[in-house]
């Protein structure tokens, strides 16, 4: 066996022993694109309605992460995830057309937080046949040959419209009429190609009622934490410092962390005492438009702030589901075994006046 092969085998064995990626089920765009249109597969966008209407995978449904993960019984943003209301949650999901036998592929534009939050939600409901699409909409768009042609034709359309405008201003009406005729022909081609794209705009399509069941006895809270658990962890970190068996990671922007940015509905600004800071953007691969950077690059980020694999790690953001979930997903992909999202986030901690904070 050559040294290069030995090295590959050693790395493979190491990854297995560390459990890297064993829990989070990612799917690449190259795999996901072959599943579009299948009845036993459902693509779900975690984006808000406006973003969904602007761009989504054909045939998708829209479940906005913050609505589903942090909505109370009156549909107002709250600390309690919707799984605390099993019947309401079940009704909502069924009306979206979700079936218990389907493979659910969760995605967002490509950034990751909205997909990560929604993935965590369905995971907490005990649905095992689930994938997180690494690269989201952008990943599918890059692989669609019709998309490239569509973009090219749209550029031509823009130029023709400009030419018509110039010709009209110069009173060259015959030229304007000739260009208009070309534009009409081009528009017909564009509309035909648009109908064949894998990425579409507009509202979600109407779906027949699904049979997804929310069984409260099967709710999995392994990767979720409440405010009291996080408070105990924070106290332990204050007492033992870097020797603590706990770590807390704040995934928000620095302006939020230091309390400079005021959040509507939150009485206080700042962060949980002794939390460490990894803004969610450091995890996303913006250059290649992927939801996560390479395992090696992400590991360096967490090593730099002293996060250990023998610790229980709590991540949070404003609401928890979203940026906090994205950091948690990255940690779990790296093989960190005990990772929990503080679902209340700063929205809860900042309004709990008896709880300490730092700025």
TrEMBL record:
Q: Which UniProt keywords apply?
A: Repeat, Transferase
What enzyme class is recorded for this protein?
A: transferase
EC number per UniProt: 2.8.1.1
Keyword Repeat set for record: yes
Pfam families the record matches: Rhodanese (PF00581)
Q: Which residues form the Rhodanese domain?
A: 45-149, 242-358
Q: What is this protein called?
A: Thiosulfate sulfurtransferase, rhodanese
Upper classification of the source organism reads:
unclassified sequences, metagenomes, ecological metagenomes
């Amino acid at each position: 066996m050559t040294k290069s092969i030995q090295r590959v085998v050693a790395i493979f064995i190491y990854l297995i022993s560390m459990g890297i990626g064993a829990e989070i089920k990612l799917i690449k765009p190259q795999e996901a694109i072959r599943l579009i249109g299948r009845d036993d597969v459902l693509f779900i966008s975690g984006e808000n309605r406006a973003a969904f209407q602007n761009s989504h995978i054909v045939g998708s449904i829209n479940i906005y992460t913050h609505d589903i993960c942090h909505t109370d019984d009156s549909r107002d943003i709250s600390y309690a995830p919707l799984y605390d209301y099993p019947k309401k949650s079940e009704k909502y999901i069924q009306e979206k057309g979700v079936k218990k036998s389907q493979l659910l592929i969760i995605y967002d534009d490509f950034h990751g937080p909205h997909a990560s939050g929604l993935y965590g939600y369905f995971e907490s409901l005990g649905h095992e046949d689930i994938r997180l699409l690494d690269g989201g909409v952008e990943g599918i768009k890059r692989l669609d040959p019709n998309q490239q042609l569509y973009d090219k034709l749209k550029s031509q359309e823009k130029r023709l419209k400009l030419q018509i405008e110039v010709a009209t201003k110069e009173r060259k009406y015959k030229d304007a009429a000739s260009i208009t005729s070309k534009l009409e022909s081009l528009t017909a081609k564009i509309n035909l190609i648009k109908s064949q794209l894998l990425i579409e705009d507009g509202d979600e399509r109407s779906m027949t009622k699904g049979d997804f069941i929310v069984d409260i006895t099967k709710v999995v809270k392994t990767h979720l934490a409440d405010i009291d658990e996080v408070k105990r962890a924070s106290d332990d970190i204050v007492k033992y410092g870097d020797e603590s068996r706990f770590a807390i990671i704040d995934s928000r922007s620095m302006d939020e962390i230091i309390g400079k940015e005021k959040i509507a509905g939150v009485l206080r600004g700042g962060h949980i005492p002794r939390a460490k800071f990894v803004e969610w953007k450091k995890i996303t691969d913006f250059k290649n438009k992927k939801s996560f950077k390479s395992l090696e690059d992400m590991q360096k980020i967490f090593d730099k702030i002293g996060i250990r694999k023998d610790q229980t790690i709590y991540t949070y953001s404003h609401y928890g589901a979203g940026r906090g979930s994205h950091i948690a997903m990255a940690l779990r992909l790296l093989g960190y075994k005990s990772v929990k999202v503080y679902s209340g986030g700063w929205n809860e901690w900042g309004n709990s006046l008896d709880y300490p904070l730092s700025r």
